[in-house]
Amino acid sequence: MPAPRPPSPERSAELRRRFAEEARCERPGLSTLCLLVGAEADGALDEAGMDAVEMELDRLAGELPYRPGSPHAWAVALRELLGERYGFHGVPGDYQRLESSLLHEVLRRRRGLPILLSVVWMEVARRAGAPVYGVALPGHFVVGFGEARAGQVLADPFDGGRVLTGADAELLVAGATGAPLDASMLTPAGVLDVVLRVLNNVRAWSAARPEHSGVGLWAVELSLLLPSHPARLRYERAQLLVQRGDFRNGARELEAYAEVVAGVDEPTAERLRSQARAARALLN
């Protein structure tokens, strides 16, 4: 994928309006939200391209066996279809690529980060009627089938959909955190939690590449449109605005965030106000 080419300001405003609207639906659509993220990243992704992704997910779901049975049978059916027949998987180098976080590119390349490959698994399985959900293990996203606490089966789309044993899951968690697997880690992830984690990955990609601070800015701004998000994202947005030379708006955001934290941490609020004054001084 070439250097990210953003959409026009008018297109971006429309995408963000739709993103905020979808995020506040009673049942927000995972693929819809991920495609809106993709369209914010890639100005070439138009409405026809977004529709094509949804149709491809429908087509893949149609190739699954009709209700294969147990959670384990569902996991095996998805592995055989997506991992073995179509070759969806991940490799370490995918962590260095922005397109690994964009659903339309993951479908095209059949490669991506664990969470985006899991989105493909979940959306295909959901369309076919599977009892599927995401599981946000520390450091590695996987999918679950069946009841979360009884009879749960986990699969790792990054590894081609390999069905995980309990020992496999424990090793994944231990490798990421050094801590043992806890039952709370196996709780199904909500749609908005998945989308926020996708945007976190985009922000991390941008943070390592200062020349792409614009990518980090739109990822923060989309995150702020979610009904629930970390308040500190406002500080990150302010820093990015200042970094990009928008000193006036960066100072305003710093001052607004200072008001948020002033009631619980006045010294931090004063440091934020000082940063805002420094940003305004750069206007002179």
From TrEMBL:
Q: Which Pfam families match?
A: TPR_9, Transglut_core2
Record InterPro entries: SirB1_N
Indicate the segments forming the Protein SirB1 N-terminal domain, all copies.
52-200
* Source species, domain of life: Bacteria
The family assignment reads:
Belongs to the UPF0162 family.
Q: Under which name does UniProt file this protein?
A: Transglutaminase-like domain-containing protein
